[in-house]
Amino acid sequence: MASPSTTELLDVFKSMTVLELNDFLKAFEEEFGVTAAAPVAMAAAPAAGGGGEAAAEEKDEFDVVLVAAGDKKIQVIKEVRSLVSGLGLKEAKDLVDNAPKPVLEKVSKEDAEKAKAQLEGAGATVELK
Asked: Which of 22, 56, 74, 125 could disulfide-pair with 67, CB 3.0 to 4.6 Å?
């Protein structure tokens, strides 16, 4: 049996819903013992190690990282779901339960600060990176 081509695989992925892709990603990570988040962290590391304050002023993309859910976990789960489109209740709960985890990645400073305010308003501890 011939292996599907890259184009054929992409066509399959295009036809999947966000939730189906999320389930596939989890299964892929478990099957091969890898994490999709590692390349993002590695790509961000060189930018952070740049020219100190000058690099911080030039930064236009931020990650919103949930550090801790706090006492009002249900409210935090609701806020996570409102911030991340296509995220189901189980996925939002898993994200909150496994904090620290990024909620949003590579968003504008304005969007990152807005998301941080929403999550902190629900009782969460949040960092912008």
From this structure: 125
